[in-house]
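Handoff note, outgoing to incoming analyst
You'll be picking up this chain. Sequence as last confirmed:
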Amino acid sequence: MTCTEIFEHLHQNPELSFEEFETTAFIRKILADEGIEILDLPLKTGLVARIVGSKPGKKIAFRADIDALPLEEKTNLPYKSKNPGKMHACGHDIHISVGLETARLLNQKKSELCGEVLFVFQPSEENGKGALEILKTGVLDGIDAIFSLHSSPLLEVGQVGIKEGAITAAVDLFKITIKGKGSHGAEPQNGRDPIAASAAVISSLQTIVSRNVNPNDQALVSVTHIQGGSNWNIIPEEVLLEGTIRTTNPETRAFVSRRLTEIARNTAAAFEEEASVEIENAPPCTNNDKELAAYAWKTAESLGLKPVRPEITMVGEDFAFYQEKFRGIMVWLGVGKTKPLHNPGFTANPKSIELGAKYFSEMLISY
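Most recent structure output, in case you need it:
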C-alpha cells in the first residue's frame, strides 16, 4: 500500500482511546510485511517496533499516537469515517502514516544506521494515559532521545513548526462540589443556596489569571461544566463545577491549583456553605530540548522545508510524559490550513506524509 492509501484506510476506520484493536492489527501487518521486528510487550492496544542498524550507536525512539476522537465527521471526503461518532480529527492518522513510512525508509537504509530506533505506535493520547502505559513496559529505558510530530492546520504543507521549551500546556482537571442547604424556591431564607455560591465562585476564579498570575506568564482557568438542581422551584442541596487549568511552567501550575482551592473554599464559606475541591493532574507541559530543536531546524532547512517558530498552544499532549524522562522534541507538521484540531470539519492533506517521512528519516538516521 502507498502511504496515501494507508492514510485513507486509517481515516475511514477510526477507533477511540484504548479501543484501537483494528488499528493496531493494521499497523502490525504493514510492519510485518516490511520485515520490521515487532516487540512482544504487555500492551492492550498499540505496539513498539524496532530497527537495528549495522553499526553500534545511539538508541532513540519515534512516537506516533493512534487513537481518534468521539466526533461525527462533517467533511465531504471520499474516505470519510465509516464509524459513526468517531473521527480522526486530531491528525493521528497522519502521525501513523508518517511513522510507518519513516520506518519503511529506515529499514531500507539499515546499512547507514548506527544504533537502533524504536517506533512507538502509542494508544490513548486523547485521554492523556497512553504514554504512561508505554513507559510502564520499560521498553524505552536507556534511550538517548525521543522524537515526535503533531499535525498542524495552522501551517501549509512543507512548513514545520519548531520551538525549544514548551509548545503545549500542562493540563489539570478540577472538580468543585459546593454543599448548601436545600429549600423551597419561594423560601430562600430557609436554605443556603449553592447556586448563588457557585456563581460567586465562578466569577472569583477568573481573578486568578487576571490578578494573581504574572501577565508575562501563560495560564488559564476554565469552568466547563455546571450541574445543580432538579426543578424550577427547588433550591438544591449542592452544585457541581468542573473545568480545567492550563499552565506552562511548574511553579505557576502549583500556584494556580492552590489558589483555586483557596478561592472555592473561602467563597463558599462566605455563603455559610462548604466547597470540596479535587484536582487531577494530567500531562505536564511539553519541554522541547534546545539542542534537538536546533538540530530539527537545521535538518528542515537542509531538505528545503520551511521551519517556523510557533506560538505556545494551551492544549495538552501526553508526549510530555516522555520528556520528563528523556530528551525529546515534538515538531508541528503542516497539513494545510484548514479547520482547527478537534473540529468535525478538520481535514489533512496527505501530501504532508511523504514530506514528513523524508524529514524524520533523515533526522533519525543522521542523529
